[in-house]
Write a structure and sequence with these properties.
homodimer; 411 residues; alpha/beta; Molybdenum Cofactor Biosythetic Enzyme, Chain A; Alpha-Beta Plaits; Maf protein; six-stranded mixed beta sheet; five-stranded mixed beta sheet; elongated; CinA (chains A, B); Competence-induced_CinA (chains A, B); CinA-like protein (chains A, B); CinA-like_C (chains A, B)
Chain lengths: 411, 411
């Protein structure tokens, strides 16, 4: 069923809070087979709220509203909906009792009492977490769901009471599968998967870029989850075939989680030596719970002196090739593995800028070195962007390079 | 001026991501004197996007749009806006050059080239972080601002380029002064500055919490900048008096920038030893350009073995007090300063969770050690939150503790 979400609250329009409700509901409605075509946020103003609601009713069948059910004067959602559908607001005794228990007031204030009214004929949605109940109103072929604004109350009410009703209205489900990609830009992806992105059929395929990574989302609409997954499978298979090793995971798994998992499985330990990234790669690895099983130690060797003393890089190599070179990267990787007694050493050395670049070695030049039980590999990068971006991409590339080395190894 | 925000992206309607852009823009537009009356989210669909845009144009003067500027086929925002206003899309050579530099492609693919087109007569908004530029189109008394979808790109473009234009459309000037705070929660701040926050006058005072820090923004509306600054001064003075040492900087200066600056001024060098934060503190310090002048080296000693071998923590101390203790923190700080030959050593050791907690040493227990030319200081923290949050807060607290030590020192 086509759906729209209306979020009510001046605090949203002032930017005081993020609208997490709209995301939550969009996702859950899709899973229940209702596709959200529009999300609208409007303030606590009866006239503008009525306008938004009227417009939505002209376009769509299912409207889910959050906010404006509370005790204060500017909580207007129920009143506006009731007026629009010519329904009286009736006192719900069960809700009244619950509000009494929850507030500890025997003689309820008018403000608190106000919350216990719901439109005549509506299905009550109890609020187990707060005081204001919600409801579902069916009228003139439309379905309007009223939920409270506080996310904890909204989610509880949705999952315990609203979802089961909404299931009945749906003609099917929407299921998504997400492929996570590293080493390709969104524009490159657009070339490789052009035919998929242009399909506006079922399933749909769409790219998404964020924080240095790209994902591809495949979404199918079907009568049930199994059927949807069956529709996604051949599309995913073809995309996986085309992108090959560039896909590092599915769903929400991060690059560092993949690497830690691979290391654990292969019973391999790791140590890191970082120059320009200054601990960013190690920090990402250590953010994975249980990283201590495989992460031995990390050295942040920013100066040449530290590279020599801690990692055993020779002054000869630094003099001949420079601190930012394939040779230094490899010595750093070997050095840290030796120091830590780990199976693998990974290093990053580069010029993050803004200063320090030369025509031969410009800002953004980065070398990644990997020493793995005596075998060496090195990757040269020329990155573009500000200092923070170059450092982030360097750390991600190091993780991805390690992932590819481990993958080859396990074959 | 009345404003609306239109967010474009099917990923928002599917609930794959939270719409933080709408919040950010609502807040910033208000500060610039534009009140947002509606936020709308629509998918990557030309027809529905055009419909939303047409409706908004009937209601409002200023429309700020995010998303749909990228290289793929379903990025349609510019095309839709150009069509609606009968404008051609013209190739912008500066953007083209920038995309070439950023992607490293000499012969740009059609997908990448697509991004460099903007509607005829529009004001260009450069993208310093990504590839797709934005623009501002003025037509028929309306102002349409197009910004990219990824929050990092959007915020950079808004602050560096869009905001100054949007200032001109409001009457008078809005001037903000930002005080950066560490060591107080937003709710504590609400207590201390209650009287200021409740003033809905001119200037306004508002708190912002993000990424473990809190800021207070004082905003005045006046006929000119000088007048606005004059209105802000006494308010700022009173707030600074109340918050004292908790204020570490003004404007956009980060905690790590303050620390690096203090170290530079005092000609002091530093080395870091991190356990649970795994390089996060060092990484923050090294993100400051020119950090190499004062940062000697960092050790990520996750295991007890590494703490002993690299930092000289004795097995006696580890056995008696444990790896997460004031004693170990101090030994680590001293150890890394000795190893690096630096004036100052800073250490972090703690339990970031989710596992590893005990009733005596629960998850979130963190010790920060500082060794400064023979003098020792230690700070014990009990943090709450997930692993990532505990690690972030630990790194920030370490920087703040060092800041306070350096401040006392310089007195």
């Amino acid at each position: 069923m086509n759906a729209e979400i209306i979020s009510v609250g001046t605090e949203l329009l002032l930017g005081n809070i993020v609208n997490t409700n709209a995301q939550y509901l969009s996702k859950r409605l899709a899973e229940l087979g209702h596709f959200v075509y529009r999300q609208t946020t409007v303030g606590d103003n009866a006239e503008r709220l009525a306008q938004v609601l009227k417009e939505a009713l002209e376009r769509t069948t299912l409207i889910v509203m959050t906010g404006g059910l509370g005790p204060t004067q500017d909580d207007l959602t129920k009143e506006t909906v009731a007026k629009l559908f010519n329904r009286k607001l009736l006192l719900d005794e069960v809700s009244l009792k619950r509000i009494r228990e929850r507030t500890g007031e025997i003689e309820l204030s008018d403000a608190n009492k106000k919350q216990a009214y719901i439109p005549e004929g509506a299905i009550l949605l109890p609020n187990d977490v707060g005081t204001a109940p919600g409801c579902i109103l069916e009228d003139r072929g439309k379905i309007i769901v009223l939920l409270p604004g506080p996310p904890v109350e909204m989610e509880n009410m949705f999952e315990r009471y609203a979802a089961q009703h909404l299931k009945h209205y749906s003609e099917g489900v929407l299921v998504s599968r997400i492929l996570r990609i590293f080493g390709l830009r969104e524009s490159q992806l657009a070339g490789i998967l052009k035919d998929f992105f242009e399909r506006y059929e079922n399933p749909t395929v769409a790219p998404y870029a964020s924080d240095g990574e790209v994902t591809v989302r495949i979404t199918a609409r079907a009568t049930d989850k199994k059927q949807a997954e069956k529709m996604i499978a051949p599309v995913a298979e073809e995309i996986i075939k085309r992108l090959g090793d560039h896909i590092y995971a599915e769903g929400k798994t991060s690059l560092e989680e993949v690497v830690i998992e691979m290391l654990k499985k292969a019973h391999l330990s790791i140590a890191t030596a970082e120059s320009c990234t200054g601990g960013l790669m190690a920090s990402k690895l250590i953010n994975v719970p249980g990283a201590s099983e495989v992460f031995k130690e990390g050295i942040i060797a920013y100066s040449n002196e530290a590279k020599m003393r801690l990692l055993g890089v020779t002054s000869q190599i630094l003099k001949t090739h420079g601190a930012v070179s394939a040779e230094t990267a490899l010595e750093m990787a070997k050095g840290v593995a030796t120091l830590a007694g780990s199976d693998i050493g990974v290093s990053i050395t580069g010029i993050a800028g803004p200063g320090g670049g030369t025509p031969e070695k410009p800002v953004g030049l980065v070398y990644i070195g990997i020493w793995f039980a005596g075998r060496k590999s090195v990757k040269k990068l020329q990155l573009h962007g500000n200092r923070n971006w170059i450092r982030l991409k360097s750390a991600l590339y190091a993780l991805d390079t390690l992932r590819r080395v481990l993958k080859t190894q396990s074959k």
